[in-house]
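Running low. Invent one:
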Amino acid sequence: MSALSIQDLVVRYGHGSNAMVAVDGVSLTVPRGEVVGLVGESGSGKSTVARAIVGLAPVASGSILLDGAPVPRRGRRPVQMVFQDPQSSLDPRMSIARSIAESFGPEIPRAGRAAEVARLLELVHLDPARAAARPGELSGGQRQRVAIARALAARPDVIVADEITSALDVSVQGAVLNLVRELQRELGLSMLFISHNLAVVRYVASTVAVMRGGRIVEQGPVEQILEHPEHPYTRELLAAVPESLRSAS
C-alpha cells in the first residue's frame, strides 16, 4: 500500500459568475497502511473529494499524489473506489464472478481467475458458491461485500470508501465495518473512509478530517477530535452522536 496526498485541491463546476466551488483548497494525507476518516454533512464536499481522487470530478487546481507522483489516469488504477450504493455500482446483468474479474490486471491469468474470485469472496466472508449469482439475488450487505472484493481485485495502493454503510440496514452496518477493520489489519490497507457519522469513523479510522462548505475545518487523531473538538461545527456533529456510541470502541 502507498501514501495518498491531496494538496490545495479545488473542484469547481461551471464557469464565470455561474461557477460553483464544491471543494476549496483541501489538503489531506492518507499515510501508508492507515485509515483516515473524512466526515461532514451532506453537501459538505467530501464525496466530491472522493470523486476527484479517482478522476470522476474536475480538478481546477491543486494536486493528488500517490507516493509523491501524480495518480495515473490510464492503465492500472492504483486508487479504487467503493461507492455508497452497491445496487447502482454493480451491473445487474453480470454475475458476481464477472464483476470481480473485470478488475483483474494482467498478472492474473485467465486460467486462474476463478480461483482468485473464490479467494476474494472468502476474504470478504461470502460463500464462493455465490460467484454465479447476480446482484439482485444478494442482500444489500452482500452486494457491498462484492463491491469491496471488486476493489481489492485490482490490487490497489489506496481504497476510497464513500459512505459505504449509509445505504445499508443498521443491522448489517456493523458487520461491514468489522470487515473493514479486519481487512485493514490483514492487508495493511491505505484507505480514505468517508462518512457523515463521527461514530462510524471513530470505529475504523485512526485520524479524521472534518469538512464543511468545501473546506476542512479541523483534523487530527480521532480520539483527540472526539474528546476535545475545537471547531463549533465539529461539536455539532459530535452532539448528534449518542453518548453510548461516542465511547464505543
